[in-house]
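Milestone 3.1: sequence recovery, worked example.
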């Protein structure tokens, strides 16, 4: 079962002349990016054992390669465990050779990969092994392989560095670089894999950009439309009708999203309605809530900045100061957090793994769930609304920073960004909305009473 490296067999023969055509393959291959070669090799389902045992030496030799690119693309292909195992062996080799600086660089890379460690079992570039081999390796693999959930008997003590000087055996010249075997074995497959990876990476980047740009553009359009919707009111009575309509729309879409999440979490959601696009519309409330909230905040700030030199119409000020506006936004955010907690409970194992990979203890997951649940309930009550919104704002800022620190795709932070913007709008409307109260009614001319602080009467 042990696959020990045979250095003479691991070095592929070429002519010694650098101008010979048979040697050009080696020269061209060596000029390739070592990070790309390592990633291509790790992505192979079945790799020659001699080449696989050369990968830790590749990581050690080119320790200054572009690790950011390598780690990012390894995560995209779910090969971070294979990469981490190769880097672990490379670090052990560096420590054995007394190269402490290289060992520290490799250990820093391992710290990043530790946060993305996969729980699923995998083989180290040998997917075709039999079940008997897999059962044997589960009992005889090294602690490092077990930590990275890999089925392999490879250990650093069995990895022998091939000779750096040219060697001849039976009159056959050999390439002086031990990396020749790596490049030569992979050469027929590397280009196809590289092209496939490049196309997949481009498609993935286009999808991420499309999702992000779609969210931002729809948010902007919704804010512009809501801005005109609020300014369109000609009387205080019509503004009351409009803000009540917004409240009803917000409540309807929010409860529809809650029903969707509940049915999906218990597995009874009909397949014919399982649409990702429809779910996004429900999650973002059709961009109605965030568009109205942003435009209302802009109007409030503009009204305060203008002072007595310019005042909006009483109908406009009646809309942004209505308690129905604050209730509609708060209700939407509160139900969003309730849906989030349902999702965390339904996918408990995945959430535990994410928190551990992000560097947090497991108990912190339960603390976040409890804090978000309490904050969601606090948004329903006027006296606790401001404190709840402030606390949830800090949690969402922490969620976004965690995704950024993990170098996750930006769309993973869109839901947190959506809630963060709405929570900021709630705070502004709660603190400054009452200052935009119309002083007189355009219909009756009577002086309006301020809205009570507890917002008990719409």
């Amino acid at each position: 079962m042990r696959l020990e490296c045979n250095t003479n067999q691991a070095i592929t023969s070429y002519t010694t002349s650098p101008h010979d055509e048979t040697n050009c393959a080696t020269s061209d291959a060596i000029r390739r990016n070592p990070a790309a070669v390592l990633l291509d090799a790790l992505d192979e389902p079945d790799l020659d054992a001699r080449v696989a045992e050369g990968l830790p030496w590749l990581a050690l030799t080119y320790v200054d390669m572009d690790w950011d690119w390598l780690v990012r693309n390894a995560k995209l292909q779910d090969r971070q465990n294979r990469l981490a195992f190769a880097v672990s062996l490379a670090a052990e080799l560096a420590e054995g050779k007394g190269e402490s600086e290289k060992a520290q660089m490799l250990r820093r890379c391992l710290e990043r990969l530790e946060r993305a460690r996969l729980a699923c079992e995998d083989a180290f570039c040998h997917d075709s092994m039999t079940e008997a081999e897999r059962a044997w390796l589960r009992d005889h693999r090294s602690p490092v392989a077990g930590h990275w959930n890999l089925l392999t008997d490879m250990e650093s003590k069995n990895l022998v560095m091939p000779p750096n000087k040219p060697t001849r055996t039976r009159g056959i010249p050999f390439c002086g670089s031990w990396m020749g075997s790596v490049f030569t074995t992979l050469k027929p497959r590397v280009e196809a894999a590289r092209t496939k990876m490049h196309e997949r990476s481009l498609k993935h980047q286009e999808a991420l950009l499309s999702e992000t740009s779609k969210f931002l553009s729809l948010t902007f359009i919704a804010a512009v439309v809501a801005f005109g919707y609020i300014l369109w009111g000609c009387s205080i009575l019509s503004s009351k009708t409009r803000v009540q309509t917004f409240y009803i729309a917000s409540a309807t879409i929010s409860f529809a999203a809650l029903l969707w999440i509940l049915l999906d979490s218990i597995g009874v959601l009909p397949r014919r309605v399982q649409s990702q696009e429809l779910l996004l519309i429900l999650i973002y409330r059709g961009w109605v809530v965030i568009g109205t909230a942003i435009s209302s905040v802009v109007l409030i700030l503009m009204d305060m900045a203008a002072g007595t030199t310019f005042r909006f119409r009483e109908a406009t000020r009646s809309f942004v100061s209505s308690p129905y506006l604050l209730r509609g936004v708060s209700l939407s955010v509160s139900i969003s957090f309730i849906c989030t907690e349902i999702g965390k409970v339904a996918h408990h194992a995945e959430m535990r793994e994410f928190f551990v990979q992000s560097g947090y203890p497991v108990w912190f997951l339960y603390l976040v769930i409890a804090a978000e649940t309490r904050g969601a309930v606090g948004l329903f009550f006027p006296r606790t609304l401001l404190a709840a919104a402030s606390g949830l704002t800090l949690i969402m800022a922490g969620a976004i920073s965690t995704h950024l620190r993990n170098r996750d795709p930006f769309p993973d932070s869109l839901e947190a960004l959506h809630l963060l913007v709405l929570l900021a709008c709630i705070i502004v409307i709660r603190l400054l909305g009452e200052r935009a109260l119309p002083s007189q009614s355009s219909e009756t001319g009577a002086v309006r009473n301020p809205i009570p602080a507890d917002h008990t009467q719409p």
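The chain has two domains: 7-199, 232-436. Residues 1-30, 163-178, 439-458 have pLDDT under 50 and may be disordered.
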